[in-house]
């Protein structure tokens, strides 16, 4: 068990508070705060060694939920990137929370594709359609983009979706097809 109030990790902007640290103990569920911290680490890795990694943006875990429920995200950084700076990035990642399960939408700017990744084998055409429609509102040429399901490693239980989500983000942010021993 982690003791103390806050633990600094690798960089002054990445601070794990006691609640987050306890979530990393065996038997606890990993939440959206841990996903956000991991994405900050990936962003830090990308910043330190840009020649090794794709330029990616990692949207917060609530972004997709907010646009799906028609709540305003017009002032969020991700909206600015999609509207005005999309060409600066290779990929943009959107973690999606479905009650007790996590999956992933990836905007692959290089290949003009909207991709859905699910470690339980879900084929959420709805999530793809919804994100495609949202992209069409922000990006003039998004109507020509493809929407596709990406084959990713499959979990063999109902507990590890966040770990699979994070590994998929890690692999895809490096431009590598996810492949790891389960």
From TrEMBL:
<dbReference type="InterPro" id="IPR038765">
    <property type="entry name" value="Papain-like_cys_pep_sf"/>
</dbReference>
<dbReference type="GO" id="GO:0006508">
    <property type="term" value="P:proteolysis"/>
</dbReference>
<feature type="domain" description="Ubiquitin-like protease family profile">
    <location>
        <begin position="14"/>
        <end position="172"/>
    </location>
</feature>
<keyword id="KW-0788">Thiol protease</keyword>
<dbReference type="InterPro" id="IPR003653">
    <property type="entry name" value="Peptidase_C48_C"/>
</dbReference>
<dbReference type="GO" id="GO:0016926">
    <property type="term" value="P:protein desumoylation"/>
</dbReference>
<comment type="similarity">
    <text>Belongs to the peptidase C48 family.</text>
</comment>
<protein>
    <recommendedName>
        <fullName>Ubiquitin-like protease family profile domain-containing protein</fullName>
    </recommendedName>
</protein>
<dbReference type="GO" id="GO:0005634">
    <property type="term" value="C:nucleus"/>
</dbReference>
<keyword id="KW-0378">Hydrolase</keyword>
<dbReference type="GO" id="GO:0016929">
    <property type="term" value="F:deSUMOylase activity"/>
</dbReference>
<dbReference type="Pfam" id="PF02902">
    <property type="entry name" value="Peptidase_C48"/>
</dbReference>
<keyword id="KW-0645">Protease</keyword>
């Amino acid at each position: 068990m982690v003791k103390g109030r806050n633990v600094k990790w690798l960089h002054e902007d990445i601070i794990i508070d006691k609640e987050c640290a306890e979530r990393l103990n065996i038997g606890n569920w990993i939440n959206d705060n841990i996903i956000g911290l991991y994405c900050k680490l990936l962003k830090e890795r990308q910043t330190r060694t840009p020649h090794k990694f794709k330029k990616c943006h990692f949207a917060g875990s609530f972004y997709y939920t907010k646009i799906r429920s028609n709540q305003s995200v017009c002032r969020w950084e991700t909206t600015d990137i999609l509207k005005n700076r999309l060409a600066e990035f290779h990929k943009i990642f959107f973690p999606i929370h479905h009650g007790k399960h996590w999956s992933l939408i990836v905007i692959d700017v290089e290949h003009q594709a909207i991709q859905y990744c699910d470690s339980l084998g879900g084929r959420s055409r709805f999530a793809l359609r919804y994100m495609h429609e949202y992209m069409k509102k922000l990006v003039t040429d998004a109507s020509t983009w493809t929407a596709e399901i990406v084959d990713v490693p499959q979990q063999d239980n109902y507990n590890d979706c966040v770990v699979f989500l994070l590994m998929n983000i890690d692999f895809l942010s490096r431009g590598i097809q996810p492949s790891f021993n389960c």
